[in-house]
Amino acid sequence: MSSPSSKPILRFAPSPNGRLHLGHAYSALYTWQAAALLGGTALLRMEDTDPERCKPEFAQAIIDDLHWLGLDWPEPVMVQSERFPIYAEAANRLRDADLLYPCFCSRSGIAAKADGTDPDGAPLYPGTCRHLHRGEQIERLQRGDPVQFRLDIEKAIARTGMLTFTIVGPLVTDRPQVRYAHPERWGDVVLQRKGTPTSYHLSVVVDDAAQAITHVTRGRDMEAATDLHVLLQFLLGLPSPIYNFHRLILDAEGKKLSKSKGSPNLASLRDAGWTQQDVRRELGF
């Protein structure tokens, strides 16, 4: 069920680990357009939980780029790095429910034993540490071994049973449809790492609830993650928004634009003479 609200609330939540490109611009413009169609509001959220890659200058650049596109939002902007204690409390609730366990495996060790991949193409965790004796867990934690904390997906699904979520599309005003969630395909996902009390999956569901988000607009590449988010929402007693999946902006090779590939960013396009109207026209707005 979506959370009760006097009006729809949507959000655009980029990571300030680089400059925005046309794919981000499309997602932002799509979200603000959807908010207008629903008679609601679009919020900005900074998902900056990675302190090594996320920088204040990138966060300011995102704000500048969005203003250049003609977008605005209510203040203050939610900043995830300011909310670590809240995510840690959510993780502790899962730990108290015996759903979170420490894992000491290396990436290479996981890859060597994995049987298949998750929807993102990463090796599925083989469950090596799932049944470690409590005494060994405590000993290794006290010793300071590198650790991450995983959700026991089988236990979690046993608690929830079959889950569903609501989607609309391609327009947010379309008739809602119910879809079954399949979080089992993610395996025992990491929800915490040593030194970082959250993961994308954990923080996004906590923050969507905190901001009373009623509709989540996201790219089709994030469609599979919704299965896992619906599971976490149920386990934490949080409302589930309505979901809408939009198209991706692709490069000349038919691949998704990305910061890591050096896709042209809005600043470089602006320097090359593009206007706000040029960007909107290019993206169909």
UniProtKB/TrEMBL annotation:
<keyword id="KW-0547">Nucleotide-binding</keyword>
<keyword id="KW-0479">Metal-binding</keyword>
<keyword id="KW-0436">Ligase</keyword>
<dbReference type="InterPro" id="IPR049940">
    <property type="entry name" value="GluQ/Sye"/>
</dbReference>
<keyword id="KW-0648">Protein biosynthesis</keyword>
<keyword id="KW-0030">Aminoacyl-tRNA synthetase</keyword>
<feature type="domain" description="Glutamyl/glutaminyl-tRNA synthetase class Ib catalytic">
    <location>
        <begin position="11"/>
        <end position="264"/>
    </location>
</feature>
<keyword id="KW-0067">ATP-binding</keyword>
<keyword id="KW-0862">Zinc</keyword>
<dbReference type="InterPro" id="IPR001412">
    <property type="entry name" value="aa-tRNA-synth_I_CS"/>
</dbReference>
<dbReference type="Pfam" id="PF00749">
    <property type="entry name" value="tRNA-synt_1c"/>
</dbReference>
<comment type="similarity">
    <text>Belongs to the class-I aminoacyl-tRNA synthetase family.</text>
</comment>
<dbReference type="GO" id="GO:0016874">
    <property type="term" value="F:ligase activity"/>
</dbReference>
<dbReference type="InterPro" id="IPR014729">
    <property type="entry name" value="Rossmann-like_a/b/a_fold"/>
</dbReference>
<protein>
    <submittedName>
        <fullName>tRNA glutamyl-Q(34) synthetase GluQRS</fullName>
        <ecNumber>6.1.1.-</ecNumber>
    </submittedName>
</protein>
<dbReference type="InterPro" id="IPR000924">
    <property type="entry name" value="Glu/Gln-tRNA-synth"/>
</dbReference>
<dbReference type="InterPro" id="IPR020058">
    <property type="entry name" value="Glu/Gln-tRNA-synth_Ib_cat-dom"/>
</dbReference>
